[in-house]
Structures are given as structure tokens and as C-alpha cells.
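Interim report, section 4.2 (structural modelling).
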Amino acid sequence: MEPLDEQQLAGGLAGTRRRRAQTGTKERMIRAAARILSREGYARLTMERVAAESGVAKTTLYRRWPTKAALCMELYLEVAGNELSDPDTGNVGSDLKHVANAVVRLQTKTVAGPALIGLIAEAQVNPDSRPAFLAEFAERRREVTRLVLNRAIERGELRADTDIDLVIDALGGAVTFRLLQGHAPLTQEFANALVSLVLNGCKPGPDEQQENG
Amino acid sequence: MEPLDEQQLAGGLAGTRRRRAQTGTKERMIRAAARILSREGYARLTMERVAAESGVAKTTLYRRWPTKAALCMELYLEVAGNELSDPDTGNVGSDLKHVANAVVRLQTKTVAGPALIGLIAEAQVNPDSRPAFLAEFAERRREVTRLVLNRAIERGELRADTDIDLVIDALGGAVTFRLLQGHAPLTQEFANALVSLVLNGCKPGPDEQQENG
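Predicted structure of the assembly:
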């Protein structure tokens, strides 16, 4: 998203000026929501506070996002879009570790973590909002891993009958589980070990079986 | 939990009678909460409605459970306690499939599903309640799988360095992920395939590599 540039604004056409001003307003509202979310979490984020902190009229805020869940969804997708990319290293293990680490970083170091927690909670307590939100949300999140796994199957690195959705759920599920339950830390080591588990399983390899018993 | 027995009540001592009456009251409140939860979900469950539907005074209800989350926690643990047991079949694959299927059944066919969804949501939006609730909740849920995995390591069915908490997160996470996001069905086939994935990984076995690649 381009920052506002005073010179361009002054020299531009009226339409361009209006569009840029709108972009600036949207950016201000999103940034204000991100600051509140980082500082105080989803429960204390309200549309009133976003309006006050961004200096934008409440009607303008509501015109763009009817609910705080919709606002958080846009925030989440914007941050996730910047963080998640297809690494395409040529090796399925490296690719998946790259993605898993990016997801862990996204959920622990960026505002996407509290946004995701809030969105999941909201979708459970407001059942009406659930299907549409989760369909879009889950789908966007799965795209990168699906690309990685399909390439790995084509290269013969994974079994041809690998259930891609199952692998995505095992990887994404474990990360989300720790994020939601908070029973164990979300670390790089965890992300890497999770990828190894899903690729290799936890049975002894043929060498280990011969050597050890 | 023993059902009320009118004859025993009539013939018993005063203390026994009082204890039985208390058990009956608790049972009535729990059953009323379960009916509301099954019919209408966590969002529409209120302490007022539990009191009205069970015919128990609100003060009695609040004396036992200060919040609806506490009530749902007890409900969840009661149902889970009945459904989840250590199968001890002598084989790690059979044991894990038994547990995974029990968890899927618990979350899709019993009132534990909506109770769990509500509790997870509540813990996110009311951060103060989070640590205590999730510590107890997560711990109880992990016990059975931990028993199964430790036995399998002792028998040499799993690698000695298997990270038990990671395996539990991969199994439980994928199930919870589907429950929360609702993007794909929670079925027996899914539970069995998930166990195979975590045990065997998704790389081709040595035979397949020689034959096919």
C-alpha cells in the first residue's frame, strides 16, 4: 500500500487525489486497529476505539467494515499476504519448514496472531458469521502449502496418494492448537520438528530397526 | 453418577438423603445445560436459562459454577471421561486409531463438541480465564494419548526420541482445526488417515522408491 505523498496529491487530478485520500484513510484505520490489537487483544478492540484512535468518523469506518471481525479479517489477510510466500526451494522439507516457520512467526510476532485468535473465537460465538468467514479464511491460508505439496508429489518426493488436505490440517492444526491453548511454546524448533514428523512419521526407519532391535 | 432412588431416599439417613438430593440437583443442572447446548449452541446458553430449564434456583446454580464456562468445563470433562479410555490393544496403530475415533465421536456426536467450541472461544475473548482453564483442559485431554505413546516407545514400535507432545499436538490439532474451521468433515476415515500419517509420514517407503522411482 503506497503512503500518502503530499506533492503527488497536490499535483494530481481530482479523482487520483480522492483515491489516494481514501487509501490514506483506510491505511489509518487499519493501523489504528493493529495498534489496539497488539496492545490489548481482540476482546478490547471496539469500532469506537478504532474511530477515535485513527481520527476517522465512525460512519466512514462502518461503511468499509460492518463489524470488527470484518476489519480484523482484512488486517489478517494483509499481514499474511506479506509474510506467506511460496519458497520453491526444490525440496519439500525445506519448502514446508519455510512455510511452517513463516506461519509461526506470523502468529507470534505480528498482529495476525491476536487477529486470528479473535476471528476464530468470534466465528464460534456468532454462528451466523461462521461459514463465510471460515471458508475464505481457511482457503487463503491453505494455498501456499497446497502448491508446495503438489510440486513434491510431481517430483516423486511424496507418495502419489498423499492426502493433501490431511497434511495441511496436520501442519496447520498443530500450530493453531498451540496458539489457542497456549500449553506449549510456538517456536522454530517446534515448526521444524512438526514438518519432519509429517514427512517421516515416528516409526523407526528400516536401518534403526535392524540396528536397534 | 447414581440416579435418584426414591426408596433409598426415604429409608436413608438425613445426611445421605441430603447428599443424594444434592447429586440430583447437580445432575438436573448439568442435563439442562447439555440440552440447551445441543439444541442451540454455546452462544445461546445462559445461566438464567439453565436455572429455568432445570427448575433449580439461580443462587444454587451460581454457588456451584460461577460462570457458564465453568459449568461447560464440568460437562465436557464428564462426557470426555465416559468416552475416552486407554484401549491398550498391544499395537500403537490400533491404540491411536481407537483414541482418534473416540475424540472425533466425542466432538461430533456428543454435547462435548459445542462445549469445547464454546470453551475455546471463551478463553480467547476473556483472556483472564484463559491460563487456568486451558491448563486443566489440555492436560486431561492429553493423558490417554501419552499413555499409549509411552507404551509404544517401550515396545520399540516408535523411535525412542519421539517427541510425545508434538505427536499429541499433530493428532489433536488436526481434529480441533476441522472442528473449529468446519472446512472439511470430521469422519472415522479422517481419524484413521491422520494416525497413519503421523506414524508413517508421507514420503514413499523404500519399496515404493525402488519400484516406482
